[in-house]
């Protein structure tokens, strides 16, 4: 299996020092990413009592997808007297994006699967953004064709060549192919299956999923155990599912619960007039496209580079204390209510008496945008949108310029390289990641890609590195159905609301969007 | 000493004939019609030699120095002549003029050589010995040149290297004479330095010949390559045979001058017959100006907007005299506006509406071009049309690739276009297909075709719209950005055909 989280490989072994350093001398690089330093200022609470006070109806803390979705919903509910406080110099969270001379590129999340047709709030937002253009006579959504992922979508490097699609085919035995087919058939069945409460066993948002114990108990075993119980044996299938879990959750099948592992497949029931559930909506800047739409609603009301360090309920009011990194002053906002669109490890530090339950585990990630002359030709299927390496340390790379319509080949190409840092436990991985210099990342990334593109170091020009220390919530065994998640669903205070994908247990756009809407609606109801 | 001078006669004679052969071959490559080209080149060359011979009377002093100077000059001009002609072919407005000027100059210089040499030798030989020896070596050299030129030089060295090589020989003669007669020659050192500089230049061209024109490519094409250029977007190659001139883009045949009228008449006249209005016409692709040529036959056409990605293409077909002859200077017409832009991008920004649109893109052989055949593209195109506009799409071969052909039809239909698919026979392509389409039901609005068409008639068109069973409609999917099914059909069908 690929590198398994929790194993005891040390950092120095991980970066095998194999070749001369000057091989990478021409590659420029830098590290960006969530401001760990600023975040730790909050953790260590080094601030003085605020001198200035302002009043608003509401405050949203955190400008990730949940916070932005909440702001949009407040706008739709007619509540415009609010502020959104964001730690970074831009909003967007995991769906942030960047760009250079050659292309826009995602810094994190890069696609949205075709949404389920009953997820009306999401469909409405997509329609509002012009991504969903209408409904056909059967009531199926019609998506803007230019926003769907263009063909060829995916390829896999296996047995020294690229094959079309991500499910291993090349050089697999008949037994393996039968097992893969059996798996996909099983998922197809589970996609339609409902629990005794009449709800889908696996749904998005997760909150809508059935509570039928027959399915919920799958959360108590890990994905590997599930596969073993079902009699699966083929190495390719185990790899594929490990890849899927790492892709969506930042950890492999030994960590991720069977319920979450299955959810990845069975929750996707999306349909459209011009696409099916296997397809994606994507843009060169990844989900930055969705963020750009959401940002419009709160652009004027966002205070960037602010560290909220204390949230104090005061009867019918809430006091929010923050440090303005631009003005170097501490400020206070008194609001009727507030939304904490922050992950639990932040939320619990902000509210009085909060205790962070360590059942909330976050997977660290590395995302690198690599500018290169041209992705080298290699044997087999041609360059696709998503390019995955069988049994690779990384998840491979996404080629954002695939979504360009013009014939003009970009002067240089940009690919986004995804590496879940699951070779150590999250805390150690985080420490390891923070200690690495940009050049060390360059070496690590380049050496990984050399396996599929020998000589690629020669054509790489620049590597833009984003380290996500707490990249995504990790649905490890027992987490989805566990007490910690259940307890975190609402705050102990009537005028404080939580919104974050970690409340769902899976870090996907749809869940963040759901929680943002839910919190904003609850706040608006409370205020009216 | 005499032997040395006579050997130089031999070399000079070989070189002289080689330059003549190179010029003749190059002219028939580039301009076609080899009988005319060879005959006129030989005529001009011999006549210029006469001028050279006449001029020799004005050289009275320092004959050896003049001879050395002359050798250097012949070597340089003859040596770079073919490289120069290949380079100028693209840019020169009147290529013929440049060609004959160069041939005339070389001829004059070569014509000077022998009289000058005979003047040098006249005191060392009896007159009859002199004439006999000089002309013997001259004709032996000519025989050698005429044999090695077709057998060794053209196939192995190519034209550019051949002329370079003989230019080097000419200059080498200058150096040898310079060294051997250093006491008799004025400014020997200066002449030697000049000669060496010329040799260096010629050797450089010899080794860069591939850059100037890739000969390896000549192997991939049936006929001699007369022009090749890698633009930002594609490799443009022109080949010339006895019968025709062919344009290849990235190795794919775009037209043969022998039968392109069939292709372009069938492309342009049906939509013109079916469109009620025809004053504003859009051409997408078609940088060769051939479709525009057909459109300009209609006085009603007020403006043609031609959008082609590659400025190298439109420039070539606007400036090269032979190509301008093929498209009747259509790209120079005041009624045409040539825009070098990406069609998708251009359509996104375009606000204008057109009565007719001619869509003449390369075949959908890869995913990039495939995007120009998708519903997304046709929907964008629809915004540039009125309800009664008529468009036509070149749609590959319905015989070789019926699924690909009918996929274009299905794609247009999915975008709510009414269609009339049709096909015609173009000998150099084979059976070729088009899909005419309009947002409204299609009907013929005009009977009158412009005068001077060589192929297309209304009666022919009725046959074109009829499909035999081997090309009949197939059950296919429409081409979307997220399935790119057309590229798959195309690859499958053409792949099988080429096996």
Outline the structure in words.
The complex is a heterodimer of chains A (528) and B (499). Chain A is of the alpha/beta class and 528 residues long. Chain A has three domains: 11-32 and 362-473, no CATH class; 37-96 and 286-358 and 478-527, FAD/NAD(P)-binding domain (3-Layer(bba) Sandwich), CATH 3.50.50.60; 134-278, Orthogonal Bundle (Guanine Nucleotide Dissociation Inhibitor, domain 1). Chain A is built from 15 helices and 21 strands. Chain A has an eight-stranded mixed beta sheet with strand order 1-20-16-19-18-17-9-10. In chain A, strands 2, 3, 12, 13, 14, 15 and 21 form a seven-stranded mixed beta sheet that branches. Chain A is globular. Chain B is an alpha/beta fold and 499 residues long. Chain B folds into three domains: 2-213, Growth Hormone, Chain: A (Up-down Bundle), CATH 1.20.1250; 219-253, no CATH class; 259-498, Rossmann fold (3-Layer(aba) Sandwich). Chain B is built from 17 helices and eleven strands. In chain B, helix 3 (63-91) runs antiparallel to helix 4. Mean pLDDT of chain B is 89; it is low at 215-219. Chains A and B meet through loops of A and helix 12, helix 13 and helix 14 of B.
């Amino acid at each position: 299996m690929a590198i398994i989280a929790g194993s005891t490989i040390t950092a120095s072994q991980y970066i095998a020092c194999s070749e001369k350093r000057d091989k990478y001398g021409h590659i420029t690089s830098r590290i960006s990413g969530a401001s760990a330093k600023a975040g730790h200022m909050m953790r260590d609470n080094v601030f003085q009592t605020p001198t200035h006070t302002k009043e608003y109806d509401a405050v949203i803390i955190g400008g990730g997808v949940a916070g932005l979705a909440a702001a949009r919903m407040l706008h739709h509910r007619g509540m415009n007297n609010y502020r959104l406080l964001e730690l970074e110099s831009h909003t967007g969270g995991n769906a942030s994006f960047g760009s250079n001379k050659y292309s826009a590129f995602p810094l994190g999340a890069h696609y949205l699967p075709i949404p389920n047709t009953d997820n009306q709030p999401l469909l409405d937002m997509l329609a509002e953004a012009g991504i969903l253009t209408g409904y056909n006579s059967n009531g199926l959504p019609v998506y803007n064709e230019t926003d769907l992922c263009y063909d060829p979508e995916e390829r896999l490097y296996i047995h020294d060549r690229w094959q079309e699609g991500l499910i291993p085919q090349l050089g697999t035995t008949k037994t393996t192919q039968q097992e893969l087919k059996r798996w996909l058939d099983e998922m197809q069945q589970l996609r339609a299956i409902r629990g005794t409460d009449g709800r889908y066993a696996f749904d998005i948002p997760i909150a809508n999923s059935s509570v039928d114990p027959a399915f919920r108990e799958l959360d108590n075993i890990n994905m590997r155990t599930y596969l073993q119980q079902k009699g699966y044996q083929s190495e390719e299938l185990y790899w594929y599912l490990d890849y899927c879990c790492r892709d969506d959750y930042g950890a492999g099948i030994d960590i991720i619960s069977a319920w979450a592992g299955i959810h990845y497949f069975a929750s996707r029931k999306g349909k459209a007039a011009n696409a099916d559930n296997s397809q994606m909506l994507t843009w060169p800047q990844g989900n930055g496209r969705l963020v750009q739409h959401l940002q419009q609603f709160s652009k004027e009301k966002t205070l960037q580079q602010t560290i909220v360090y204390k949230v104090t309920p005061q009867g019918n009011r809430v006091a929010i204390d923050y440090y303005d990194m631009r003005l170097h002053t501490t400020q206070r906002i008194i609001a009727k209510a507030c939304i904490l669109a922050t992950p639990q490890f932040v939320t619990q530090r902000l509210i009085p008496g909060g205790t962070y339950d360590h059942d909330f585990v976050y997977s660290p990630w590395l995302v690198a945008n690599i500018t290169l002359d041209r992705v080298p030709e290699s044997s087999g299927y041609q360059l696709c949108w998503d390019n995955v390496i069988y049994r690779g340390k990384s998840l491979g790379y996404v080629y954002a310029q695939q979504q360009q319509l013009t014939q003009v080949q970009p002067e240089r190409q940009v690919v986004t390289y995804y590496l879940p840092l699951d070779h150590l436990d999250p805390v150690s991985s985080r420490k390891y990641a923070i200690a690495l210099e940009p050049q060390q990342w360059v070496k690590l990334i380049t050496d990984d890609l050399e396996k599929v593109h020998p000589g690629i170091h020669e054509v790489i020009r620049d590597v833009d590195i984003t380290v996500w220390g707490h990249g995504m919530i990790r649905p490890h065994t027992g987490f989805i159905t566990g007490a910690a998640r259940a307890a975190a669903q609402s705050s102990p205070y009537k005028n404080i609301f939580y919104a974050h994908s970690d409340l769902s247990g899976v870090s996907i756009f749809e869940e963040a969007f759901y929680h943002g809407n839910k919190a904003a609606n609850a706040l608006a109801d409370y205020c009216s | 000493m005499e032997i040395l001078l006579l050997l130089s006669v031999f070399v000079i004679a070989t070189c002289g004939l080689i330059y003549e052969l190179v010029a003749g071959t190059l002219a028939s490559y580039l301009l076609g019609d080899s009988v005319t080209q060879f005959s006129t080149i030989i005529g001009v060359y011999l006549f210029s030699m006469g001028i050279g011979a006449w001029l020799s009377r004005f050289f009275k002093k320092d004959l050896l120095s003049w001879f050395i100077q002359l050798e250097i000059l012949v070597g340089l001009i003859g040596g770079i002549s073919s490289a120069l002609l290949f380079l100028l072919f693209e840019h020169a407005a009147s290529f013929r003029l440049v060609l004959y000027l160069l041939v005339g100059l070389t001829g004059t210089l070569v014509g000077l050589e022998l009289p000058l040499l005979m003047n040098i030798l006249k005191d060392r030989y009896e007159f009859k010995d002199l004439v006999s020896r000089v002309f013997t070596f001259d004709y032996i050299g000519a025989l050698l040149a005429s044999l090695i030129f077709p057998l060794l030089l053209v196939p192995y060295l190519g034209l550019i290297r051949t002329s370079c090589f003989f230019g080097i020989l000419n200059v080498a003669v200058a150096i040898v004479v310079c060294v051997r007669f250093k006491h008799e020659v004025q400014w020997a050192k200066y002449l030697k330095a000049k000669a060496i500089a010329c040799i260096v230049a010629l050797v450089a061209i010899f080794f860069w010949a591939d850059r100037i024109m890739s000969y390896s490519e000549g192997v991939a094409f049936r006929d001699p390559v007369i022009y090749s250029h890698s633009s930002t977007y594609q490799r443009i190659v022109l080949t010339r045979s006895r019968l025709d001139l062919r344009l290849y883009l990235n190795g794919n045949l775009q037209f043969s001058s022998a039968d392109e009228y069939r292709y372009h008449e069938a492309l342009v006249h049906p939509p013109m017959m079916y469109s009620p209005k025809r004053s504003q016409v859009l051409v997408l692709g078609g940088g060769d100006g051939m479709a525009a040529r057909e459109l300009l036959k209609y006085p009603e056409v007020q403006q043609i907007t031609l959008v082609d990605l590659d400025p190298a293409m439109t420039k070539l077909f606007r400036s090269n005299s032979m190509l301008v002859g093929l498209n009747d200077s259509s790209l120079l017409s005041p009624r045409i506006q040539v825009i070098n832009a990406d069609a998708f991008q251009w359509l996104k920004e375009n606000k204008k509406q057109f009565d007719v649109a001619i869509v003449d893109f390369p075949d959908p052989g890869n995913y990039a071009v495939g995007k120009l055949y998708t519903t997304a593209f046709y929907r964008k195109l629809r915004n540039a049309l009125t309800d009664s506009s008529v468009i036509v799409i070149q749609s590959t071969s319905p015989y070789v690739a019926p699924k690909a052909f009918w996929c274009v039809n299905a794609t247009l239909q999915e975008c709510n276009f009414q269609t009339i698919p049709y096909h015609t026979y173009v000998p150099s392509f084979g059976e070729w297909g088009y899909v005419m389409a309009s947002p409204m039901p299609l009907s013929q609005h005009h009977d009158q075709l412009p005068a001077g068409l060589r192929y297309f008639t209304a009666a022919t068109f009725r046959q074109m719209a009829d499909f035999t069973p081997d090309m009949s409609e197939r059950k296919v999917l429409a081409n979307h950005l997220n399935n790119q099914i057309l590229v798959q059909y195309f690859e499958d069908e053409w792949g099988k055909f080429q096996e």
